[in-house]
């Protein structure tokens, strides 16, 4: 007698069941690998050399001119104020960066006067964190690329305090492995529940092109990809000893994924209010002059 399967491979329920089994097996294997990796990391860390008494700031782009760079220089200045004898180093991929040049840029561009120029550690592997290097699977590609870049950085100089100001969370286990205390300032999470929800709803947006949103199977595969990435993101993020975030929205997402609420602090980003004060003073003066002119009429 011939045996017939009660479910056809074309049956939608059959596809869902197959996807569930695959996801379960993948989760089980990933958990085993994570436990083995954690044991290996502990073993390797016990053999790592002692780091230098210094603060190292992982900021591969020191000429982006945005809020992230302002945070970098404010953090360097804060460390110099709190620990005047602690050297500060900046890991950068900008070949034209120099200690005096970076100090001058911090003052001219952001109004942050450093007590002394930082040391500069040049990185040659920055292309591995650029989005253009990964046409597909950009998030995981850049994340793994950042580990490679951090490997170069920490082999060149291993500081006691590793401070990430650019959001490269996948570098934290490596810094921990090198014996560093890991601190970070997170502007926004690499992945959030909002991103996954948009994929589930098959909405075509910046993180979900029409090719994927138009296919139920591709959408399911991407949801699985996001689920695994989110789990990995939480695992690496939890390696940070101190987490600073720039808003309540970011904190809620980071706490939800990294699961370290006691180490997560909300620190609002530094803002240059001096220019605003000048504008207010000028406007106030004009208002007074205008009122005085009206009174004389």
Automatic annotation (TrEMBL):
Sequence ranges assigned to domain ALG11 mannosyltransferase N-terminal in this UniProt record: 54-258
Molecular function per GO: GDP-Man:Man(3)GlcNAc(2)-PP-Dol alpha-1,2-mannosyltransferase activity
Entry keyword set: Endoplasmic reticulum, Membrane, Transferase, Transmembrane, Transmembrane helix
Leader peptide range in chain numbering: none
Compartment(s): Endoplasmic reticulum membrane
InterPro entries in UniProt: ALG11, ALG11_N
A single Gene Ontology CC term: endoplasmic reticulum membrane
One Pfam family here: ALG11_N
TM stretches of this protein: 16-37, 223-244
GO biological process: protein N-linked glycosylation
The protein's name: ALG11 mannosyltransferase N-terminal domain-containing protein
Native organism: Aegilops tauschii subsp. strangulata (Goatgrass)
């Amino acid at each position: 007698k011939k045996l017939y399967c009660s479910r056809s491979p074309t049956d939608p329920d059959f596809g869902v069941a197959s996807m569930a089994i695959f996801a379960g097996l993948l989760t089980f294997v990933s958990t085993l690998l994570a436990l083995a990796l954690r044991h290996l990391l502990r073993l390797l860390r016990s053999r790592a050399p002692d780091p230098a008494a210094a603060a190292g700031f992982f900021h591969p782009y020191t000429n982006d001119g945005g809020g992230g760079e302002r945070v970098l220089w404010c953090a360097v200045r804060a460390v110099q104020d709190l620990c005047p004898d602690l050297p500060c180093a900046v890991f950068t991929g900008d070949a034209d960066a120099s200690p005096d040049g970076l100090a001058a840029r911090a003052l001219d561009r952001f109004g942050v006067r450093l007590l002394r120029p930082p040391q500069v550690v040049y990185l040659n592997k920055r292309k591995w964190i650029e989005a253009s290097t990964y046409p597909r699977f950009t998030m995981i590609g850049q994340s793994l690329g950042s580990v490679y870049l951090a490997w170069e950085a920490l082999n060149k100089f291993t500081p006691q305090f590793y401070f990430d100001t650019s959001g490269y969370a996948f570098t934290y286990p490596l810094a921990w492995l090198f014996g560093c205390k890991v601190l970070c300032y997170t502007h926004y999470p690499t992945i959030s529940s909002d991103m996954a929800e948009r994929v589930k709803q098959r909405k075509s947006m910046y993180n979900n092109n029409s090719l994927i949103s138009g296919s139920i199977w591709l959408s399911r595969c991407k949801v699985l990809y996001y689920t695994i990435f989110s789990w990995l993101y939480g695992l690496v993020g939890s390696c940070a000893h101190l987490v600073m975030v720039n808003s309540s929205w970011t904190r809620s997402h980071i706490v939800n994924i990294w699961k370290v609420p006691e180490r997560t602090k909300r620190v609002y980003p530094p803002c240059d209010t001096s220019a605003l004060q000048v504008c207010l003073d000028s406007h106030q003066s004009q208002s007074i002059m205008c009122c005085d002119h009206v009174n004389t009429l």
